[in-house]
Design goal:
Distance between the termini: 45 Å
CATH class of the largest domain: Alpha Beta
Shape: globular
Order of helices and strands: EHEHEHHEHEHHEHHEHEHHEHE
Number of domains: 2
Strand content: 15-25%
Bound molecules: D-glutamic acid
CATH topology of the largest domain: Rossmann fold
Number of helices: 13
Oligomer: single chain
Length: 283
């Protein structure tokens, strides 16, 4: 039998992007810009967000449910945890315990490692400020990973628990929001004026960018993770052709939320910068 004229398409796997809510859209936006050919499925667990103040066990369970849904229902082969809290609290356990129990070769990647691999290049003073959720900051993941890649650089961390609530509750761009943004930035920079680089170590925070920039000195570099994660995924796929070849390339984007999709669509469209029509899913 001659197969050469048959169009056998074995590339059917998609890339899943997961966050507790809206924040991962800031990463998805950079991913589709850098890698437009791939098919992406976005899942926001808005019904249970924020994750930032939840226990290790809860964040792990929620994240695992989401990852399994992206694997098994959406046929994703690769899932990006576009969430620092989930990356800090659930990624290691999923990679070391859950994935080896599967018979397939699914992968899960986080956002902390790619960020800490390069963030040290941005600072001249050797002092980096890291703002994140209580969960991310308490895990100390950024300080630990930075020590591996950039020993000697000082990491100064500030948990900003209310910032994700402001985003999830649609308080973006309102005057009251500035108060809480300024409160945490003043607290951080008041203690560590040597900081010249501020890392937004929560994927929700770029949605507060204008307020953040207004409240830091103009020569501070404010770094968000979208571009960093997109570059890192690009080089990961180049290093892993066995995964890359299985990914479908129709340029499609699907959106799912665990909350009411009408509310999600409205804000997601604003954050993502393009039309978002989501479906509701119960995990
Ligand atoms: N966007 C998330 C992060 O990067 C989680 C925020 C939350 O749910 O508290 O940490």
């Amino acid at each position: 039998m001659v197969y050469s004229n048959l169009n056998i398409n074995l590339s059917v796997a998609k890339i899943g992007v997961f966050d507790s809510g809206y924040g991962g859209l800031t990463v998805l936006q950079s991913l589709v810009e850098k890698l437009p050919q791939y098919d992406f499925v976005y899942l926001g667990d808005n019904a249970r967000a924020p994750y930032g103040d939840k226990s290790f066990e809860t964040v792990y369970q929620y994240t695992l449910q989401a990852v399994n849904w992206l694997f098994d229902v959406q046929n994703c082969d690769l899932v990006i945890l576009a969430c620092n809290t989930a990356s800090a609290k659930a990624l290691r356990q999923i990679q070391q315990v859950d994935l080896p129990q599967r018979e397939d070769s699914k992968r899960v990647l986080g956002v902390i490692r790619p960020t800490t691999e390069i963030i040290g290049n941005f600072t001249k003073t050797g002092h980096i400020g890291v703002v994140g959720t209580a969960g991310t900051i308490k895990s100390n993941s950024y300080a630990i990973e930075m020590e591996r890649f950039f020993p000697g650089i000082q990491v100064h961390q500030e948990a900003c628990p209310i910032w994700v609530h402001l985003v999830e509750n649609r308080f973006v761009g309102l005057p009251g929001t500035d108060y809480f943004v300024k409160y945490h930035l003043d607290h951080l920079f008041g203690q560590f004026p040597q900081i010249d680089t501020l890392l937004l170590a929560c994927t929700h925070y770029p949605l507060l960018m204008s307020s953040i920039q207004k409240n830091v000195n103009e020569n501070i570099a404010v770094i968000s993770q979208g571009g960093i994660v997109a570059n890192s995924l690009n080089s990961y796929l180049q290093r892993h052709p066995e995964i890359e070849q299985k990914l479908s390339k129709q340029g499609s984007r699907l959106f799912f939320t665990t909350e009411k999709f009408n509310d999600f669509n409205q804000l997601a469209t604003l954050f993502y910068g393009d039309d978002v029509i989501a479906e509701r899913v119960i995990l």
